[in-house]
Amino acid sequence: MSNVVEQHNEVVGRIEKVCKRSNRAASEVALIVVSKTFGPEDITPLLDDNCRVFGENRVQEAQSKWVDLKQQYSDIELHLIGPLQSNKAEDAVALFDVIQTIDREKIAKAIGKEMEKQGRKLKLFVQVNTGSEPQKAGILPGEAVGFVKKCQEDFGLEIAGLMCIPPFDENPGPHFALLRKLAEGTGVSELSMGMSGDFETAVEFGATSVRVGSAIFGGRG
Ligand SMILES: *Cc1c(COP(=O)(O)O)cnc(C)c1O
What we know:
Blueprint: H1 3-21, E1 30-34, H2 40-48, E2 53-56, H3 59-72, E3 77-80, H4 89-95, E4 98-102, H5 105-118, E5 123-128, H6 141-153, E6 159-164, H7 173-186, E7 190-192, H8 199-204, E8 209-212, H9 214-217
Parallel strand pairs: 1-2, 1-8, 2-3, 3-4, 4-5, 5-6, 6-7
Helix pairs in contact: 4-5, 6-7
The protein binds pyridoxal-5'-phosphate.
The site of pyridoxal-5'-phosphate has 14 residues, from strand 8 and helix 9.
């Protein structure tokens, strides 16, 4: 068995364990394999092992591998988890199945327009900057509920859930709790939170999907 497949299985096992401990069904938590910086040669063993849910943070990089891989393997669900420029909306809507990083009106509008134009319906998440970090993407926590409402009512978008990336140097628990509270305030049900270093904590706080890269592929150098 290839190393990435083994490491993927190990992450799946850890998710199952924490689900059991938190009285959750393992089927409630999706594992998004974050393949950014890794090429088809690293990804293919996972595809051959029936993994189908992947995440990338750059549109162009994702195109360079996933246009071909999506032709070779059916049923792939590709998530955009990195910041999006509105001039990339067309390419993003054409390639991705889920966009997790809606965080301002301009992007929300551009994505809505493209989905209509291309006749494609993507699943959408609003990214929340739970730590209010100046350099980080995401809507500020105080504006999140209003923004989700605006996306739904003014732009006609269906928002499935919220996503966050807690500050690197802080205990992630309070950020996951805040995201969950904001989701309850808006009535959306999905929570994308937790990465290699903290996905077990995220599951305890109610994550419905975790985004894991280096614990599966190793370091990105
Ligand atoms: C890179 C990335 C991940 C995965 O990070 P790891 O620590 O390698 O698991 C998750 N979410 C986002 C938004 C990322 O950019």
